């Protein structure tokens, strides 16, 4: 029918299989729905969640500026699951890394230390081999080194370990944030032996300019540390540069502002600017929140500043405050206070230094244990020495010994015994002077200290000196026998210097005589005479000189015998000629003193043939002595012989005067010490010759010539004992002329000259050069 629907053409009919691709998807969806509905599939595993937490933690700690709060939360999440996770090694690594980063961005030191410790614990539970990512191995080693440097090093860490850690930290893995690395390297450099201050300063400077997330408090502490290093290396300008912003920052927390001001005060002191340093210490003391230990430091250092400005009273008050505390300043303050007390005029106040010094070194067992950071060891030792000296001046011998006992804790080896010997010797001398007790035990105790000291000395000269001191004190202690024994021990020492040997022989002979062992003196003499070297000739001469000069009845003959031995020596070598000539002169002088003028003349003429006048060094003295012998012999000679002797003597004296004048004119003003000595010797020779000229005129009864020559000489030798001698010869000349009035007038002039001369003008105890001679011979109630 026309009204029936037309059947679709084949081209328009739908493909029965064209949507079959949708069937699997539909079936899958229906299956999933049914599975969930039936509970056949699990929803997300814990392992997947832990991996997510680790990834979040890593992402957080690798941020340039991580959030401390977020970092803590993510650390806690990972820490909760790390124990049971198959990824525990990687989790431990992430936890350690997170805690390292958290420690670096935490301003509180104690809190940061806790995070470093947690990082160390987690890193300790994992090894590099357990990390599959190749990039994680270097990071693990680097961050582990950080942790070790921060909290993992023992007090006695080796230098090799320090160097290893510095090498690791100096080569961070790519992309690693610097954080605390530079500060940690600086810490390691300071723990080296010796501390490497240069590296520490460079690393701290880098620390202050890197690390974007480093807290301001940490940077402030770095500035303080760097300023301190600059102070230690003498770079005060750099120290002030780092301190200035901290001191001027009114908002700086107390833990920064307070130490910064203290360090600035120290910098000012290092610069010698004690006035401004004192102001800085005062400002620090006025600040609130200053720790007790730092307040103690401020008191001590302010006291030092007051010392520099000579305000000793203010310094003493501050040292008293510091001395009552507990800390390194306490001992130093006691030493400083003791030194200030020594300035007190009251002896009782000075003695308070004794207890202060004893307390200052209590518990110290040797100079190596003494802390020299505030008072250097040498300065502390000097205070002890000054205290002993002050107490000795006060006669406070027992307190001085107490100080010496305390001094033993810090003095150089043996110095306390040396001071003890000094104290005991001074105590004995005081007892002897004041007759307040028996000084001998103290002298002997002092001697025993010197003997003990000598045993500690390795060198001959020092040992010799101490044994000689001991011998001297034994002599004063009434024990010359022990004194001689100590000197004999001294003479056994090797390589004794010539300058020391002579006086030691003399001391031995003197001690033997005092010990009634005079027969042993000749044994000493024989030991000396058996030495035949040129050196021993000089020693024998000097020894003879000291024996004779001692005027000791037991020593003078020995000295004379030594002179005679040297003078009679044959085949004199060039090295011995000087002392041979001197011995000839000394022997002649001794013979003249004994009145043996003939023998003396024979020896002098022999000497002048061997050592001609005026070239030989001693020929001037020999010629003078020859003239003296001739004048003395002429007194008892027949008139004809007497005239010849006096004429020869007058010629000798006149020649000496002429030669001395020529030498002085030729030489001019002495330019060297040697020339001065020669000039002094020539002046003495000329004076003695001139006086003998007057004496010759007197013997030859030539008063006019005597008075003429004396008038010239008197003016030259005004205000001296020689002027007195000249006046006395003039007195005799007026007597020879029969002019009694002028003779008495001359005697009055002599008295005027004598009264003007001080006692020091008379250098001898007998003869014309002694004061007693003139009082007795000329100015007694019954004068000559």
UniProtKB/TrEMBL annotation:
Domain of life: Bacteria
Xref: InterPro entries: TPR-like_helical_dom_sf
The protein's name: Tetratricopeptide repeat protein
Lineage summary: Bacteria, Pseudomonadati, Planctomycetota, Planctomycetia, Gemmatales
């Amino acid at each position: 029918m026309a009204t029936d629907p037309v059947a679709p053409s084949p081209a328009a009919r739908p493909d029965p299989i064209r949507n079959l691709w949708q069937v699997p998807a539909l079936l899958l969806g229906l299956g999933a729905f049914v599975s969930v509905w039936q509970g056949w599939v699990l929803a997300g595993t814990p392992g997947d969640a832990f991996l997510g937490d680790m990834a979040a933690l890593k992402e957080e700690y690798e941020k340039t500026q991580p959030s401390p709060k977020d970092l803590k939360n993510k650390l806690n999440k990972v820490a909760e699951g790390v124990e049971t996770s198959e990824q525990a090694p990687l989790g431990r690594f992430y936890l350690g890394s997170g805690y390292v980063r958290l420690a670096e961005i935490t301003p509180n030191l104690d809190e940061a230390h806790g995070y470093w410790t947690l990082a160390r614990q987690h890193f300790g539970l994992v090894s590099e081999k357990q990390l599959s990512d190749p990039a994680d191995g270097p990071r693990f080693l680097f961050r582990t080194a950080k942790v070790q440097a921060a909290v993992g090093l023992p007090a006695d860490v080796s230098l090799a370990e320090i160097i290893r850690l510095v090498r690791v930290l100096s080569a961070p893995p790519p992309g690693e944030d610097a954080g605390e690395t530079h500060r940690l390297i600086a810490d390691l450099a300071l723990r080296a032996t010796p501390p490497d201050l240069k590296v520490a300063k460079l690393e701290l400077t880098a620390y202050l300019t890197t690390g974007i997330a480093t807290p301001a408090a940490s940077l402030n502490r770095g500035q303080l540390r760097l300023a301190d290093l600059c102070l230690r290396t003498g770079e005060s300008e750099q120290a002030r540069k780092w301190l200035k912003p901290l001191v001027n920052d009114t908002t700086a927390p107390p833990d920064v502002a307070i130490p910064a001001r203290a360090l600035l005060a120290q910098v000012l002191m290092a610069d010698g600017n004690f006035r401004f340093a004192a102001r800085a210490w005062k400002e620090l003391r006025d600040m609130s929140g200053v720790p007790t230990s730092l307040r103690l430091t401020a008191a001590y250092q302010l006291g030092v500043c007051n010392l520099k400005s000579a305000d000793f009273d203010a310094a003493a008050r501050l040292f008293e405050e510091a001395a009552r505390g507990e800390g390194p300043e306490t001992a130093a303050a006691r030493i400083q206070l003791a030194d200030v007390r020594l300035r007190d005029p009251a002896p009782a106040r000075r003695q308070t230094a004794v207890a202060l010094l004893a307390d200052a070194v209590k518990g110290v067992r040797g100079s190596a244990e003494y802390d020299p950071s505030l008072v250097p060891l040498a300065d502390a030792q000097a205070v002890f020495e000054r205290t002993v000296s002050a107490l000795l001046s006060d006669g406070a011998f027992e307190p001085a010994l107490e100080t010496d006992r305390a001094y033993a804790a810090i003095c150089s080896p043996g110095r306390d015994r040396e001071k003890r010997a000094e104290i005991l010797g001074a105590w004995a001398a005081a007892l002897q002077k004041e007759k307040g007790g028996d000084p001998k035990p103290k002298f002997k105790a002092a001697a025993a200290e010197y003997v003990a000291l000598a045993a500690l000395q390795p060198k001959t000269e020092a040992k010799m000196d101490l044994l000689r001191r001991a011998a001297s004190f034994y002599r004063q202690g009434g024990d010359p026998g022990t004194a001689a024994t100590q000197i004999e021990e001294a003479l056994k020492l090797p390589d004794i210097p010539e300058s020391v040997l002579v006086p030691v022989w003399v001391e031995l002979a003197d001690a033997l005589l005092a010990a009634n062992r005079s027969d042993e003196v000749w044994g000493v003499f024989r030991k000396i005479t058996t030495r035949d070297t040129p050196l021993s000739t000089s020693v024998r001469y000097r020894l003879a000189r000291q024996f004779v000069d001692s005027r000791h009845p037991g020593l003078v003959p020995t000295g004379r015998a030594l002179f005679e031995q040297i003078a009679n020596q044959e085949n004199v070598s060039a090295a011995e000629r000087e002392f041979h000539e001197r011995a000839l002169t000394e022997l002649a002088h001794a013979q003249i003193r004994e009145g043996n003028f003939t023998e003396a003349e024979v020896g002098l003429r022999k000497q002048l043939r061997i050592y001609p006048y005026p070239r030989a060094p001693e020929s001037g003295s020999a010629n003078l002595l020859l003239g003296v012998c001739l004048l003395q012999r002429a007194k008892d000679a027949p008139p004809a012989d007497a005239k010849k002797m006096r004429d020869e003597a007058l010629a000798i004296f006149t020649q000496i005067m002429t030669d001395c004048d020529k030498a002085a004119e030729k030489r001019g003003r002495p330019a060297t010490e040697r020339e001065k000595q020669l000039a002094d010797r020539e002046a003495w020779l000329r004076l003695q010759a001139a006086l003998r000229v007057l004496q010759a005129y007197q013997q030859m009864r030539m008063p006019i010539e005597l008075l003429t020559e004396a008038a010239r000489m008197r003016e030259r030798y005004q205000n001296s004992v020689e002027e007195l001698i000249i006046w006395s010869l003039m007195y005799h000349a007026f007597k020879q002329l029969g002019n009694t009035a002028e003779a008495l007038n001359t005697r009055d002039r002599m008295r005027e000259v004598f009264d003007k001369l001080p006692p020091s003008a008379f250098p001898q105890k007998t003869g014309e050069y002694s004061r007693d001679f003139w009082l007795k011979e000329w100015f007694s109630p019954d004068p000559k």
